[in-house]
Amino acid sequence: MRVGFFLAMRQLRRSGKGTTILITFIMILTFLNLVVVSGLLVGLISGSFKQFREAYSGEVLITSADGRDYIENSPALIAFLESHPKVSAISPRYSVGVQMLGTLTDLPEKNEKPNRIGITLTGIDPGREEIVTGFSRFLKYGEPLEEGDDGYVLLGANMIKKYSSFADANIPGLSPLEDVDIGNRVRVSFSRSGGGVVSKEFIIKGIVKSKVDEISTRAFITDRELKKLLPVNKEQVQAIAVKTDYAYAATLVAETKEFMVGHAARIQTTDEAVPSFLRDIETTFRILGNALSSVALIVASITVFIVIFINAVTKRKFIGIMKGIGISPQAIQFSYIFQALFYGVVGSAIGVVLTFALLKPYFDVHPIDFPFSDGILVATAEGAAIRIAILLAVTLIAGFIPAKLIVSKNTLDSILGR
Fold it and tell me: What share of the chain is helix, strand, coil (3-state, %, to 5)?
């Protein structure tokens, strides 16, 4: 191995700089293909997970259990969370499904569909919501909702045809409000559980827009005003977003479940609250990224094989002479393996620097703007290490095979070029 390393270093010094740079560049591109391409594909979905956590759920999301209209024992749960040392902020939310009428002056003509949509009306504490999610950053038009804004509502952009991202799509069941804008009045109404209808008019104060559906497809008023409209269970909330350390979320969920024994509620980390179909998409994208990376890996291995093979073939005479003067075939084989290893190590090292020092910080600050998420680059040190190991293993095999083929030739035939 010492002799092989010595021979490898001599050949690398004497080889053309252009060839060395070209092969190293191919290895860099291969590494980036292995890490960056799959990382960006997975990042499309991971970006939506991150937005869901930062814009809506917090690190822990508590909602009403299946078949229940509210979180049981809500006041005590809120007090527990507010006093928890690991909880930095919470945002209790009230919500109810309502019908929203956009045209209050003209009645629809015969066979004309009313300018009405079904929407979730959510009551929030603007101050608390701002701490947990930075809600004001989603305001695209108009003015923000403030404490004491009775009679005002913020509407999700996708619920108004003028601002909806789906206004030009003919989607069955999705009919945004028409001829509705900031300053217009809308009427919301919902049925009481015991009979009767609750109805109230609001002035649209602003339009909120986000790639998180829970914001762009809802209406928001102050929690105090929605509590007035609710006929019963005025102190029982429908959702609580909890801000805590991401790593502590699972522990907090376990502690909260223990506190809520005997009371119905769905308590989840933000990762558990994400819809399962998004997880399936993430898995599919990961598989697709690995498949594309495998193609690049095969191309790189073939390139290294060809380069080492041509290098060995052009030096058959020298290989024969080295064997003739007593250098072992294994040492000669090691020299070519070390050359291949050099290309793989240098290419991977430069690729790691580019990925973690340049590309990942760049995409964290400037995510890719997709219609459903802000795409980021998902790359971890553990994942990169695994890909480096795979790349080096393939490179070593690509360097060993041609060296073995040439070195195994008859020594005299190699010297004479036969």
Answer: 55, 20, 25
- Measured between alpha carbons, how far is 159 from 121 in angstroms, rounded to an integer? 12
Span 361-376, pLDDT tens digits = 888 888 887 767 778 8
Exposure string for 243-269, b = 16+ CB within 10 A, e = fewer: bbeeeebeebbebbeeebeeeebebbb
Q: Where does 163-298 show beta strands of DSSP type E? A: 185-191, 197-208, 218-222, 239-244, 266-269
Q: Residue ranges of the domains in the chain?
A: 2-52+278-416, 91-238
Return the C-alpha torsion angle 260, 261, 267, 268, nearest 10.
Answer: 130
Highest averaged pLDDT of the listed ranges 103-112, 196-205, 379-388, 391-400: 196-205
pTM: 0.75
Residue 138 DSSP one-character state: G
Q: Is pLDDT above 60 for 331?
A: yes
How many Å apart are CA 390 and CA 392, to the nearest integer? Answer: 6
Indicate if the alpha-carbon torsion angle 13, 15, 18, 20 is positive or negative: negative
b (16+ CB within 10 A) / e for 102-127: bbeeeeeeeeeeebbbebbbbbbbbe
Maximum mean pLDDT: which of 101-110, 118-127, 278-287? 118-127
Which CA distances in Å does 396 have to 287, 308, 334, 345, 392? 25, 11, 10, 11, 6
Q: In which band, very low, low, confident or very high, does the pLDDT at 413 lie, cut at 50, 70 and 90?
A: low
* HSE-up (13 A, CA, CB side) for residue 330: 2
> What is residue 359's three-state secondary structure?
helix
Per-residue pLDDT averaged across 278-301, rounded?
Answer: 79
DSSP reduced 3-state for 238? coil
The residues that bridge with 322 in the sheet, in sequence order, are: none
What is the arithmetic mean of pLDDT over 21-30? 83
